[in-house]
Amino acid sequence: MVSDIHGNRLALEAVLADLRSLTPDLVANLGDHLSGPLEAAATAELLLAQPGWVHILGNHDRQLVEREPGALGLSDRAAEKQLNDVHKSWLRSLPRTAVVAKEVLLCHGAPRDDCAYLLEEVSPSGVGLASREKIRSRAGLAMGAILCGHSHVPRCVRLSDGTLVLNPGSVGLQAYFDSEHAVPHVIETGSPHARYALLDRNSRGWRATFRVVEYAWDRAAQLAAQGNRPDWAHALATGYALRGTLDCPVALNADR
Fold this sequence. Notes:
The protein is an alpha/beta fold and 256 residues long. It has one domain (9-238): Metallo-dependent phosphatases (Purple Acid Phosphatase, chain A, domain 2, 4-Layer Sandwich). Helices cover 28% and strands 21% of the residues. It has helices at 9-20, 40-48, 59-66, 74-80, 85-92, 132-139, 217-226, 230-238, and strands spanning 28-29, 54-55, 98-100, 104-106, 120-123, 126-129, 145-147, 155-158, 164-167, 175-178, 185-188, 194-202, 205-213. Strands 3-4-7-9-8 form a five-stranded mixed sheet, with no helix packed on it. Strands 1-2 form a two-stranded parallel sheet. The longest helix has 12 residues, at 9-20. The protein is globular and about 50 Å long.
């Protein structure tokens, strides 16, 4: 499964090339496909050309079709300027959640809130893994597996009821500062690689394999810089959020 592409066509192309060597039965795309100062329209065209993929809405996808352009944040606004009616109609057609293979739930954030983290807990001291009890409460019904995105952090948790909860990480953006959260916080993966994951089943149930893929992240960073987004440029090139002169994070995804 893939998630959080954020208009990064170069990263998506690298993931597609890696996927071709693996020939999965199904590819699930967990949302936030286009938002950002990169190549939203080209990314949309590439996604539309993938046969048999299952796509769901992320919070940014929803905002792109629910809000007027003047009410969008910087990242959404940059993407919206590139999108045509076909791209927007495609986004409107997508569900917020889906079930595949009869027992695998797809959601973007948490099943009932696309802006909520399912696996993370945010506190004044930072972002960490939430307790199993909190994840179970947020997840709702037990499933064979629940696949989520939104936090951009690759994680795999098995709950006490056997449900596997998996975030594949982000294809297109490896760091951000969320200034809109009740507790502003930084997410960083520490390298610029594109990330996605595989899910397969054996005699013990569902299991996950994480993939880390090289791509031309310097070119992606240049695109962000040309779009006057040094925050994105730094995150794309390094996997770390840009910090100001007083070690204060610069708002990367203030419109999350």
